[in-house]
Design goal:
Layout lengths: L11 E5 L4 H12 L4 E4 L3 H11 L5 E3 L7 H15 L2 E6 L14 H11 L1 H17 L2 E6 L12 H22 L3 E8 L2 E2 L14 E2 H12 L5 E4 L1 H10 L4 H14 L22
Helix pairs in contact: 1-7, 3-5, 4-6
Length: about 280
């Protein structure tokens, strides 16, 4: 099975949700590593500002696009292929966080979450895999999150989408290995991209967007299927799932009661219709 690991000599990198948060920081780090980086979101002004900031270090190519629109993502990939060169690395990072409480359910929160977080990845994945399959090699990273490991208060929509992405990546890995495409799963824990606590938890243990991007870059160069950070938060999340439900819910209740009130959805990763987006 292929263990293809790309570097900046292999072609272009593509980062979705690049106007802010982890996506923006990752694009800057990849440019410094020598990549020409295609950046996508619906916020054209922020992408242009990113392009100008990176100009001294390398090349950023702005291709506006809405990940919830499959034809838009086909168009972005066609532009990459025919106007700019071979796509070597794709990091599907665009996503939305919308807090959902059981005592105040709204259909729109679920529909928007799945449209961006799950369908948005699929809409990018299909053209990217077709392009890389034709080349016989490529490298794709799907940004999910530790929220997919287990249910948390306020996390019903967001966590469900992240669990879906974890299963999606696990299910596709071996098939893509066999056609020369390396697939990795990025599972960040709490990332402080807004200055506010996330979904009922205190800010202690969070990493900055730039620190998260550094973890991602290091992970892309590694042999690991899953890239997860920060270590303490991820370890607690994974070990907690080994507990029986009674102990699990007691632990979650204690930890979430110590945290802050769940925040409103905020903009850190823009990808769809100008709606509020947040990191994983």
């Amino acid at each position: 099975m292929s263990m293809h690991k790309t570097n900046s000599e292999h072609g272009l990198a593509w980062v979705t949700g690049a106007s802010s948060g982890i996506g923006r920081a990752l694009a800057l780090r990849l440019v410094r590593d020598g990549y020409s980086v295609v950046v996508t979101s619906r916020n054209h002004e922020k992408l242009v500002a990113l392009q100008q900031e990176a100009a001294a270090d390398g090349r950023i190519i702005v291709l506006d696009g809405d990940v919830t629109d499959p034809q838009d993502m086909e168009r972005v990939l066609a532009s990459i292929e025919y106007d700019h060169g071979d796509l070597s690395l794709a990091v599907f990072n665009a996503g939305v966080t919308i807090p959902v409480r059981g005592d105040d359910l709204h259909r729109d929160a679920f529909e928007r979450s799945f449209a961006v977080n799950v369908n948005g990845v699929v809409n990018c994945l299909l053209p990217a895999v077709a392009h890389m399959k034709a080349r016989g090699q490529g490298h794709i990273a799907i940004v999910s999150g530790a929220a997919g490991y287990g249910g948390l208060p306020g996390n019903a929509a967001h966590g469900a989408t992240k669990a879906a992405l974890i299963n999606l990546a696990e299910s596709l890995k071996l098939d893509l290995d066999r056609i020369g495409i390396r697939l990795q799963l990025i599972n960040p824990g709490p990332v402080d991209t807004t200055g506010s606590p996330r979904l009922g938890f205190a800010r202690s243990g969070m990493v900055s967007a730039d620190e998260a991007a550094q973890h991602v870059v290091e992970g892309l160069k590694s042999k690991h299927f899953e890239v997860s950070f920060p270590k303490r938060s991820i370890t607690i999340a994974k070990l907690s799932r080994l507990l029986p439900y009674g102990a699990y819910f007691a632990l979650v209740d204690r930890l979430t009661r110590q945290g802050a009130t769940p925040p409103k959805a905020t903009n850190t990763r823009t990808s769809a219709k100008g709606r509020p987006h947040q990191a994983v």
